[in-house]
Write a structure and sequence with these properties.
heterodimer; A: 170 residues; mainly alpha; B: 148 residues; Ferritin; 4 helices
């Protein structure tokens, strides 16, 4: 009798864990993940949009007249990493063909401050914000997606000191 | 081991993070020994060394608090790369940080949000230290599979 509540709790816990285990077990590889449920799709779309915006900002700064070749090389390296993030995030987004969601266009060209110093400051702030946001979002998504978001969050955090250093020396 | 409040999966991940921090605590001693003491890099090695020792102790305390025994560090380590120059010392630091990053990535897959948050914080810290030693950033810290 004394075991009653405990047993019920255990049963409830295992019932709740079933969907998690099912989704967790199919992703055998570290990066593998099954089609995520709706809330994760929304979150993924927002992460994809954030990366697209970030890429657009980098393109805008790189297209500006003020960037020296040294700055251009460093910004291009960071841009490449964002493009890799975007590819990986998009590969996790599995939606039915022809659905409205799959046809969503990428955002248009971003506007960045005209001065290079201000533009680098804006990029740094955007990286910091994106990193922090992913660090929160990874708390509630399936394990494999959480790991991808965590890795991207860490990568974006490492962009901040690079941009800050460029800003100080530009 | 009753009253732990942590699943076997979570304890295993914490022990793996502990092992990585123990290895880093050992390895940074070697890194620091091969850097010019007057150089700024030597001071980075020292502060990174302290960070890993603190993280190691914190993980051991968490494992103990969960009612389990922290696995002790090996008496000696086989370094992943030979180190006899400052450049090789920096390479070792990069490898140590990547291994630590990968271990913390394991915490991010756990059910407990507090452990995920810890994993994310420490993964970011390892990525920042690794990027400073590498003098370059990477797209997917902790997810790289090229290192042993």
């Amino acid at each position: 009798m004394a075991d009653g509540p405990n047993r019920r709790a255990v049963l409830a816990a295992s019932a709740a864990a079933v969907p998690f285990l099912v989704s967790g077990c199919r992703g055998v590889q570290v990066l593998g993940t099954p089609p995520p449920p709706a809330p994760d799709v929304r979150l993924l779309r927002s992460a994809i949009l954030t990366e697209q915006l970030m890429i657009s900002r980098y393109h805008a700064v790189l297209a500006g007249p003020a960037a020296s070749s040294g700055v251009t090389a460093k910004l291009s390296a960071l841009l490449t990493e964002h493009e890799q993030h975007l590819v990986e995030l998009k590969s996790r987004l599995i939606v039915p063909a022809g659905s409205a969601a799959s046809a969503r266009p990428a955002p248009g060209r971003a506007t960045v401050p005209a001065s290079l110093t201000d533009a680098l400051g804006a990029l740094s702030a955007a990286e910091h914000a994106a990193s922090r946001r992913l660090a929160t979002e990874l708390l509630t998504v399936p394990p494999a997606l959480a790991q991808l978001l965590g890795s991207i969050s860490a990568s974006e955090a490492t962009h901040v000191p690079v941009l800050d250093q460029l800003r100080r020396t530009s | 081991m009753t009253g732990s409040g942590l699943s076997p999966q979570s304890l295993t991940a914490l022990q793996a993070a502990l092992a990585a921090e123990q290895a880093a605590s050992y390895g940074y001693g070697v890194v620091g020994a091969h850097l010019n003491a007057s150089h700024a890099q030597s001071s980075s090695a020292n502060s990174d060394w302290v960070a890993h020792q603190l993280a190691r102790d914190s993980l051991a305390a968490m494992i103990t608090a969960a009612g389990a025994n922290p696995v002790p560090a090996p008496v000696a380590y086989q370094l992943p790369v030979p180190v006899s120059t400052p450049a090789e010392a920096r390479s070792l630091a990069v490898i140590l940080e990547e291994k630590v990053a990968r271990a913390y990535l394991g915490l991010i897959a756990l059910p407990e949000q507090s452990l995920r948050a810890l994993g994310s914080r420490e993964l970011t810290a390892a990525a920042l230290r690794g990027a400073a030693w590498r003098r370059a950033t990477v797209a997917f810290p902790g997810l790289a599979t090229s290192i042993k």
